[in-house]
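User: Can you help me understand a structure? I only have the sequence.
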Amino acid sequence: MFSPLRHPAYRHLFTAQVAALLGAGLATVALGLLAHDLAGASAGEILGAALAIKMVAYIGVAPFASALAAHLPRKTLLVSLDIVRAGVAASLPFVGEAWQVYALMTILYVASAAFTPAFQAMIPDLLEDEAEYTKALSLSRLAADLESVASPVLAALLLAVMSYSNLFAGTAVGFVVSALFVVSAVLPALSTAQSRPFLQRLTGGVRLFALTPRLRGLLAISLATAAGGAMVFVNTVVLVQSGFAMSEQATAWALAAFGGGSMTAAVILPRLLARLPDRSAMVLGAGTMTVVLLSGPWLAVSYPALLALWVVMGFGYSLTITPAGRALRRSSGPADRPALFAAQFALSHACWLIAYPVAGLVSAEADPGAAFLVLAGLCATGTMAALVIWPAHDPETLPHRHDDLAPDDPHLAGAHAVDETGVHAHPFVVDEQHARWPSGKS
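Assistant: Let's start by predicting it. Here is the structure, written out as tokens:
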């Protein structure tokens, strides 16, 4: 599983990711404490507004940032965004008003919305081997899960010897370390493909989603992922501290159980995906989360039972989210990859923007048991839609024909001829030469 780390550039980028994740995790803890300092019992209002800003930034900014940055040097772009994020983190201890929090977090989230898709889109260019890329995806998922467990523990240890405002310094250090490792990495050059108009770069990723069946299925899976994840992230504290009258530490351990289940799946996924197609693994994960949500009102009646459910939920969650990069890679050429990753980033967060309010409002207006069932319906909807939209037979190489190309056209030179009528086959993606998904041999 760790063989991608032998690749120097990927090793540096992975270290940069871990440093940034740890820094961001410290900021999450510190932001909650800052909100409580500013608003007391109304801290949830500040955190809720910050979360809304985050979702709007991720949905609205990522495609624009990808289109604007299409021809910027990759290293300069990533390092600049890391420095911006470090500057915001260093400024947060000095705020005294809620509006200042909103302004700084807007800058931070806009920078993250530009950074993350550009970072993710480089990995397939570094690791061209499918098996190595699959392992890299699992490592990234493992890093994210470790962050969800390690950051609160690290924050608790640091808070024993310093004030919470110093945690923001740790966040700034994390982003600076990330920038240093990006600087030291030898990154792949940008595609030399002919420049495209801004509007085409802006909408190109969404267009690929609309025209590629597996990507439409991936979006449906994203809805299921958000439904299961929102139940955990929004209602764990309600279930543990209000339902079971337990401590904040118990809430942290419940979230760690979810992370542990996700880490377990990330470890076994490279071997699993060697036997199962991406669609089967992701649908299995979404179905697992649906079953957990459906059983929640009857099984989540004690703390140990909740821990067990959250381990299974985390396992299903990782099954749905980790293989997504493989589907994106199979559905795009190098020139379109940044736009496609940006579109996935925005569209998947749009699913979270649906699931988060549902999880919170239903739990508040009714009870967590009702939230389990409503989110189960949302998760099942995404799962069933994926089964319908994403074909079970989904080969990478597809036969098709170009009636407007001469027999000696360079595009046909590397393709495998299927028959004498001009039908040929090669790894297929929607692009300038392939405007629509082939049907049969047309």
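Now, to help you interpret it: The chain has a mean pLDDT of 80. DSSP finds 15 helices and three strands in the chain. Let me know which part you'd like to focus on.
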